[in-house]
């Protein structure tokens, strides 16, 4: 039986961008995040409701893509237990200093090669006077700037073999598989896993190029669906590229808007209403090809780029492309 | 250290009503619940997103008030461990058959005398054809009738000594104390505790009458704050008594509407937006008298009946009233 | 100069359906209208905020499509003046009895052949006891059933030559042309006209089949965009066909959802937020082909059926089809 | 019969403030208006959806209060006709230059002494490049800053005798009286009048001090009720004083939030959903004392300051106070 409740939640994610200043502008003026510091090529940003110091670490880099994804353990013992299991799995890298404000971090990779950090010690965020919230049960003042997203919600990785990564998350880290897509030939094309009562925290989607270690998107939660409609209005005004949405996913029923930040990474604004997964014996919902062919919840067909755009971009000569025959549901993965 | 993650969530609650038919009408036509069955004096009802069979068990009774509050354990081992601890605490009653669709239930009381049931085995709800949802990751079709609340959210008990019950929830059941009110003399006037990533599942509020075992309210979650505004419109049209709201609590930041069902029990419709408590080392937020004197988040003063109305009603001659001196924040507990 | 403020508003519309019972079910259970009476093959229905007796007159008919569209004059003198102008235009038919609850109605057609009725005398709706609203400034109790749309909002006609109908509405009836689409060759492909501070009441869109007298859609207003998102959830649950949306039109900025009622007629649920046209010298906004090629406000491409589905259906052999060369913006009219 | 449709809409209002800089900060950072210019002691500001240049003219002044309230005529002839009627009424002052961007303005007062300006000529607003909207049917880019209110909505004047001012608006300017409060002794305590399809543009409320020429509040419209809830969150964060709300008025059913700007003037954020007054023969809704005693739509009791706070403040020695006997509904006027 998998170990449950050893990972508390998805924590700050390192994003790479070839246009750091423009990306910082996007995260602060469009999404409404706050810069909390910088060091070398890195700029640290946070949403107003994350209790730790950092939600996103933006790093100047020749390409777009995702760097280290951090997870917080539920306690020091849970951290030790997970590190032992990760080492046993052969994916461990070793202990490193955490980002500023974070304690020792155990670095590892998922089977696809995405880098992760696992830690427990964390300084809670202390806002400066001008960002102090009016209500003491809130981390930081509500910014009322741009989309003003509440918190980092989830990360969606592209991967060569979602099933292997799904099993790693479940068996080594203790995630629950809440939903997945299974093709007619049995292949798992995508899997949604959760460490919390949210219905998903990490997702693996098959990379049609066969590449490893890429990012599909990171997502931020808003309080309402209306917040996302307004975020679409703001994207239009600010010249932020809208890829698709707003609409409602059939899978997980998430209300979504997908945009690209200037560095090229896809960013989702998402809202689940009050939907939670509270059942300890949740039954994985498996979607078939036929079911996925129906499109999104209200009938929107999935946009083509949703299946072709990942970061960093890959030169297709170097990639192992999945043929159409191998990817029959290309038109409607989510 | 308290045991964490042994209780999965608050489950169905038994409510007593002297006017069963009218109460059923309220729960189905105003809140939008569905009747799933009845047995003797009991009618079973469910919200559209609860995955188990029952959200509320309405029971004909000479008075209003709360009967058994059920909790689901996270697994059979967790159930066994908690039963042992409850027995050790001296509050155990014993094993009983569960409600229809539920397995063996261990009955106990909190120190205040409210009855609880703890179980693990549970049949998942299977909707009849006419209530089958269009999306397979949903328990039941959305009713589009009345307020159409999503799920049971929390229960707020009145109790003679909140601190004792708070400690029982924390030390015996493994709840986390997310927020509380502490008077200047050190008394805990109210405490919010959670088993999940929701910021509270059960609450204890000091009963000004000094009575034991009473109910302050049960609450149902909606997806948006707008749903609650509309629920207020509908209450007005249907003649449902609105006690206070809609407004936003400072404590927990819950957007709320309080109404009375015809039997006299207070029912809250609540929305937390996307606020969750994800920190494994959450620091209990303690509100002082001075802070509470500011009223609700946006300044609404708490309505008097919020401090005097509990169910069942008590004859004050039989109660041990708290004097004004003992209850200096009577005007603004939430 | 055109006569202004002689038409008060768009009033009840007669819709034809080959499946009357199913259409009544759709209007009452999905949209939330109330049946107020029936006579022969006609069923009268109303939204909760229309102050007159009827919003929609559903009529059993071999095909779908639109019958008489009614307009209320601002007064008896305005009615007389408009009738004279209509007669002078050669489109008059003559005086007839109005529908039950309505006074003498002058029947005429637009240049495309759609039938209209113009009247002034109207009994205000008096709700029966069970539908009496709690607030006396409201026509009828809020139904809290299905989408619960507030009022009839606008009608969109298909027509062979939108420009001719636009000019008729403007010059004979006194409408203001708020927005329009002009193709590169100068053709007006669609025109939005208003009698009120709403930004449009009647619309003419070019019928690609070259047919006359057909309907593109009728629309009902909701209070919020969230109401429309919820209406999409309900459509999914009730098996109502969603053609496209929810999304936001670039033209008029209307937030929309398009569904088909069982008879085949397209119905829009729409919301304009608090957008009004208050300028007495409003400057018609003219959209070019290049601008329309950008799709809807947030980038949604217009669904193909939006350009091919009108009611009643036409046998293309009998129609005068517009060639692709003549209709270069077929992919993105709205 | 009163002249209808000669006034197009309420236009820009001059507000006086003893703390000009702080008031500008409130209007730009909290409400989200844009400064378009300044001249001497005046700063001109606009909302993003007003099509003219100015929504509010803030003027440095020893006290708070309202200066000139502008109305736009529907055309040059309507302007001439209204000026003749105003002169005939004895309330005319004479022609003056308008504010920058506005043509000749006829200045007059209402019977209570509030100053008005009536004009027709108006330059439409042309945004600079950085404020250009993405959609050409919008006046200015959506600011996404603070509450981002859409447009000036209405003005509520305090007056010694509402009925006299009501009749002036109706008989001289052509307003329609949509709702009013009539005390048991026949006195009109408040009257709501409209020039448009909005259910009110100007309101007169009895000044309990007996003073003349004071302001109760000015109001700005948002697109949704949720926008107003969020505006309350932002007020809390920014230290803006919330007087009452959010809640729903029974009269006019307006969803409201009342705050004070730093100069002391009361400002309302309001939303009517899609409620419009379309009936040309609208029947004035008259509320009785008994009906008003029920409080607001969902039961909120009116806050005391709602009846005592007006601008500029008056020294009560100089005022003619209304006695309690004369003002039996003091606790619940709206």
From TrEMBL, chains A, B, C, D:
<keyword id="KW-0560">Oxidoreductase</keyword>
<dbReference type="InterPro" id="IPR029068">
    <property type="entry name" value="Glyas_Bleomycin-R_OHBP_Dase"/>
</dbReference>
<protein>
    <submittedName>
        <fullName>Catechol 2,3-dioxygenase</fullName>
    </submittedName>
</protein>
<dbReference type="GO" id="GO:0051213">
    <property type="term" value="F:dioxygenase activity"/>
</dbReference>
<dbReference type="InterPro" id="IPR004360">
    <property type="entry name" value="Glyas_Fos-R_dOase_dom"/>
</dbReference>
<feature type="domain" description="VOC">
    <location>
        <begin position="151"/>
        <end position="272"/>
    </location>
</feature>
<feature type="region of interest" description="Disordered">
    <location>
        <begin position="310"/>
        <end position="334"/>
    </location>
</feature>
<dbReference type="Pfam" id="PF00903">
    <property type="entry name" value="Glyoxalase"/>
</dbReference>
<dbReference type="InterPro" id="IPR050383">
    <property type="entry name" value="GlyoxalaseI/FosfomycinResist"/>
</dbReference>
<keyword id="KW-0223">Dioxygenase</keyword>
<dbReference type="InterPro" id="IPR037523">
    <property type="entry name" value="VOC_core"/>
</dbReference>
<feature type="domain" description="VOC">
    <location>
        <begin position="9"/>
        <end position="121"/>
    </location>
</feature>
